[in-house]
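Q: What changes when phenylalanine is included in the input?
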Amino acid sequence: MDTLDALKTKYLSKIEGAGDETALEEVRVAALGKKGEVSLQMRSLGQMSPEERQVAGPALNALKADLTEALALRRDGLADAALNARLAEEWADVSLTPRPQQQGTLHPISQVTEEVIAIFADLGYGVAEGPQVENDWYNFDSLNIPPEHPSRQEMDTFYMHREAGDNRPPHVLRTHTSPVQVRHMEAHGAPCRIICPGRVYRADYDQTHTPMFHQVEGLAIDTDISMANLKWTLEEFCCAFFEIDDITLRFRASHFPFTEPSAEVDIRCSWEDGQLKLGEGDDWLEILGSGMVHPKVLSNAGIDPEVYQGFAFGIGIDRIAMLKYGIPDLRAFFESDLRWLRHYGFSPLASAG
Ligand code: PHE
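A: The predicted holo structure follows.
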């Protein structure tokens, strides 16, 4: 029994003295491994007499259990110590300023488009889209603009190139968003309430014109829609968009082949010291064209003009963006100058409308 006590003392102190997990494993193998001292003792039980075995057996088992427990304790202790050492060594300074990240901004056109969509969504309008490369039926003829019509020239249209002998009808870069009206009515019928924001193209370039710009078309068709509904809708939209209660709009009789009657709409404003103020003053700024959809346009889109009528409008998105956010030159919108984009851009996380 003395030998077992001696073994226990020896191994307990070796376990205690093991400095790391590798050393501890060596101690385990020396005691409890296949050829370990304790295992060899176990094997010698076979040669003992039953009486001897009755005493030595439990004592050996107890020794094995004691050593196993001590090993486990020491292993845990070493793992904790190793973790603490790592934590002490590898620490992160959470107060450190983060590395600078590239931060993008929303272009004012995107921002304003989102705002317009949100306002019309509240009024029950959905969003429709159409192609930017359009054929001349949708861009002109279906909208009651015949080939010889002067507005066809006025539009400064970009025509797609055609090889000699290619006799397909001409395709154009759409000059307005109105073709989406016809496409939508053709596909979905009446009644409908939609807006169609998007890019449009005209060969024109100065401080207030760029060859590519943006419009949002509006279309409301039902059995009982009048010019009064158009007026209310546009006033409601302008108050919400410009965030001014007492906005004044002026409806000026005008002409578009696809609406009858037609009106252009101006907004009351003033220029003082180069500052633009909306809702006051003696100046007027044109922001949109509108009118009651022409019966021919309805029937071109497969809608019975005896049953349905409605209004349409086309707002210049770039125009109303310049007015709302005080951006003086239209051309700057499309020059991709980073300083301009950072100044006039919007945080992507701010909500629209
Ligand atoms: N399509 C017209 C334009 O581009 C605007 C408009 C749309 C006018 C709808 C009336 C109705 O100028």
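Observations recorded in class: The CA atoms of residues 20 and 77 lie 10 Å apart.
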